[in-house]
Please model this.
Amino acid sequence: MRASQFALSFCLIIASASPDGLALADATATAVWMTDFAEAESEAKRLNWPLVVHFYGPSCPPCKRMEKELLLTPQVLKILDSGFIAVKVDVAKNLNLQPRFQIAAMPTDLILSPEGKVLVRTEGYTGEADKTRYLANLSKIDKQYAGKRLARTDAGDAGADPAIAKDKAPAVKDKGPATKNRAIASNNDKLVPPPTDPKKVDVSGDSASQGDLDDVPAAAAPAIQLAMDGYCPVTLRSTRTWKIGSKDFALEHDGQTYYFTASEKRNEFKSNPARYAPKLLGCDPVVLAESDLAIRGSTQYGAFYDGSLFLFESAESRTKFRKTPSRYSNLKQVVKPEDVKTIASASNK
Model:
């Protein structure tokens, strides 16, 4: 049933058809290039993926030219997204890394093994010759690790990685055909394990149980919604674990309040919110596309797709998304915080 409270306008953009009938959305710079070296290093080791490190300076002309002509091009972004962990490092803000990797010039680019060994080093950028060499190095290392990497899809499953399984509840398995769509088997899609303890966080900062929150009258609810039930979005992306944030490290973004586990996590989110915030203000993209309703998704059901976090209201909705992700992931809509609040409130009555 369509909501009468407001008209939600949006347009659905379908990705162009591919030979196998379904095209994945293009990789984006914010989804591919990380900015925290420690998190990137940890992710590379966890997945057994090679790590590309780009050392630069904000006032370095060759660095800017290299980004424009090479690093941020669709060709390179696609290569990195499918087989590498990539991170950009501002040398001035990461002085501890300069002696470790003997950075004497900018830009300096390294390809590291998952264990941290330098496999390839290049310095400077002058144009086409350096571009050709860079692509050749990526191709060479990509072939070396073919078949050795842990697929991101598998890594999202709590049982796939013993090093992180202890902090997560078993992932909810969607019911469906035994054979998966090729798009779902790609490295762009991975399920998010449900929280071990899906508790809510009291915006006032006082400890509250789920039952306590249910007893609060609707009129007393905070004007600004708490995003992701108070779980830290940066920690979720970097470790695939749900950690409750603190009101001491809060940040308002797009009409919602996010909690973080530390000030560094909050700063990382602030520098690149599109990388960590759920798409569509956390609304279920399937419901939005099919019913024009801005229903908030649940932290129990989520998936990373094309570098972005999507939340769903049910396992069934997530399953439908996984069957044809290009249909739902490219929604262009106008969703306002007050719209989400109105619809979410109406749906809970």
The chain has two domains: 10-14+166-347, 49-144. The longest helix spans residues 128-144. DSSP finds 16 helices and 13 strands in the chain.
